[in-house]
Amino acid sequence: MTDRPSATPPSTRRRPRRGGRRVLRIVLLVVAVLALAAGGAGWWAYSHLNGNIDSVDLDQAIGDNRPKKVVPGAQNILVLGSDSRDGANGELDHGDVSGARSDTAMLVHLPEGRSRATAVSIPRDTLISRPECRGGDGKTVPAADRVMFNSVYTLAGPACVVKTVEQLSGIRVDHFVEVDFAGFKGLVDALGGVTVTLDKPMTGAKGGLKLDAGTHRLNGTDSLRFVRTRYGYGDGSDLGRIGLQQQFMMAMLSEIKKQDALGNPARLYKLADAGTKSLTTDSELASLTALADFAQSMKGVDPDTMETIMLPVAYDKIDPNRVIVAQPQAGQLWEALRTDQKIPAEAKKSPATAKG
Asked: Of 22, 155, 225, 262, most Cβ neighbours within 10 A?
């Protein structure tokens, strides 16, 4: 981020990076992996796929100081996008950058009855209060105020992100799912590519993908660039990128349906292998059996009707390159989800928005 300019008009301020930076690949991987798990496979395949999944015991990592569950039949899943540059991920994008970060976080709410879903994206640049956490090395990470939400994962790992979201929202997180760069690429390549159509050119600004207006067949690497494109398309903001991500998600789901991937055991296994290699979950979901059971419970949810909302945020008065949680909108949003009620229209409005 740059320092605050002395006289920068609001229209040229750098946009807040919406938590949906990698919304597409996360939602798609979660939906695909859960659906694929439900398809079944031989024991040898089951054992292999089961071994792909990493897990974290949230209860052990967080402890007992957590929000109470208000509606027993509802479920809340925190979905994280890992920007790790280790291993296969390092070959995909800026391999010289060390460490791991979570540039995307979405709290997906499944109401009682599970006939619909709501996904709340938390902008990565939101300044929040981080609770005291135990890091992956077992050491205590002290509480701190006015830290970037994006920094929590890097400093203390996914369990601390879960604890932070619970403190921020007052909502009990039932499960968490994390996916990474390599898994997204592998899933697209397992399909043989995905077809997208652009109504205007993508310029390739700042190392992004360059495409003419029209229809294109994208492989895994170019698909990753497509959903990450920011400066080369639309208004150059992360909010504009969301439109591309949503478009790609629908295109990929259409590709899976067209190929009848879920009805083809060989292709099903290939897709599930690619998806589970990128997957980390809480310990309760860390098996194909658990994922299949969870997928079965979600069979009434239509992805086309999933509502995506950005957590209402406002520009920070001290640093306009950061955002803070906007009240009372955010409080109204969290309360509606916590109690499984309809979200008020006002709670969906964010003072900090992209400008066309």
From this structure: 22
Q: Is residue 303 helix, strand or coil?
A: helix
Residue 115 has what DSSP assignment? S
pLDDT at residue number 45: 61
CB 165 within 8 A of CB 10: no
Query: Which residues, given as ranges, of the chain have pLDDT below 50?
Result: 1-25, 34-41, 85, 87-98, 356
* Average pLDDT for the chain: 77
Would you give the DSSP letter of residue 348?
G
- Please tell me the distance from the alpha carbon of residue 253 to that of residue 106, in angstroms, as a whole number: 20
Question: Whats the size of the chain, residue-wise?
Answer: 356
* Percent with pLDDT over 70 in the chain: 72
DSSP 3-state of 324: strand
Rounded Cα distance between 180 and 277, Å, is 9
Residue 120 burial (10 A CB sphere; 0-12, 13-18, 19+): buried
- Can you tell me the distance from the alpha carbon of 293 to that of 278, in angstroms, rounded to the nearest whole number? 20
CA separation for the pair 59, 55 (Å, rounded): 12
**Closest Cα partner for 162 from 76, 248, 42?**
76
CA 214 to chain centre: 28
DSSP 3-state of 146: strand
Whole-angstrom Cα distance, residue 287 to residue 296? 14
Would you say the C-alpha torsion 147, 149, 151, 157 has a positive or negative sign? positive
- What stretch of H or E contains 24? helix 23-39
Residues 6 or more apart whose Cβ sits within 8 Å of residue 181: 82, 83, 84, 88, 89, 92, 93, 224, 278
Q: 303 to each of 175, 248, 306, how far by Cα in Å?
A: 19, 13, 5
Say which residues have a Cβ less than 8 Å from residue 248's Cβ, sequence separation at least 6: 24, 194, 196, 223, 226, 227
Pairing of β 75-82 and β 102-110? antiparallel
